[in-house]
Amino acid sequence: MEPIRTLRSRTVVLTASDIDTDQIIPARFLTTTTREGLGKHLFADWRYGPDGAPRADFVLNQPQAHGCSILVAGANFGCGSSREHAPWALTDFGLRAVISTQFADIFRNNALKNGLLPVVVDADTHRWLLEHPGEPLSIDLELSSLTLPNGTTVRFPLEPFARYCLLNGVDELGFLLGREAEIAAYEARRGLA
To answer: Can you give the pTM of this predicted structure?
Structure first.
């Protein structure tokens, strides 16, 4: 995983609420156990027509979405079934953060474990973001803050362990492997080795 310290990007906006994991990555694409290549299937049923051609009216297919790493979405993003492939598809597409007023718990946990930052903001900030697609934002992970173009700074909640992992580009297993010498020393002291 790439560490996240500061994200600076324009936003791409999906105003819909209750976007579920099957809309994020349809079940027919869950045949892989690797993260690579899922970005091309992100929102597949919305991005492509029945003939497989990109739909020009879908926001991720529009030129202004190119290069954006921050998605602003409606409330209750990531609801539905538990699907680790959803954050994999979002990050493989190039997104590093999703901003909403609410995330489904399982999606939020999967996102944090897979290098995708779910940012929860208040209703007023969210409304402004939905109404101003493409605006440049800055997210400072160390401060857990989001800075709007006018300089307004909004804090967001983030657990310390999740922040540590994202800042250092490690998942839970990577964190434990980084402590292998300490674990071995503890086991030796306890007679467990």
So the answer is: 0.91
* 95-114: pLDDT as tens digits: 999 999 999 999 999 999 99
From the list 99, 42, 109, 108, the residue with the least C-alpha distance to 72 is 99
CATH code of 49's domain:
3.20.19.10
99 neighbors 157 (Cβ within 8 angstroms): no
pLDDT digits (tens, 9 = 90+) for 165-178: 999 999 887 777 78
Q: Work out how many domains the chain is built from and give that number.
A: 1
| DSSP character at residue 53 | P
Q: Which helix (H) or strand (E) holds 165?
A: helix 160-168
Query: For residue 60, what are the CA distances in angstroms to 45, 54, 121?
Result: 12, 10, 22
Give the HSE-up count for residue 185: Cα atoms under 13 Å, Cβ half-sphere.
4
- The answer to the question of residue 1 being in a domain is no
Alpha helices in 94-159 (DSSP H): 105-113, 123-131
H-assigned helices in 59-148: 85-93, 105-113, 123-131
What six digits make up the tokens of 113?
């474990």
For 13, phi then psi, to 5°, come to -120, 130
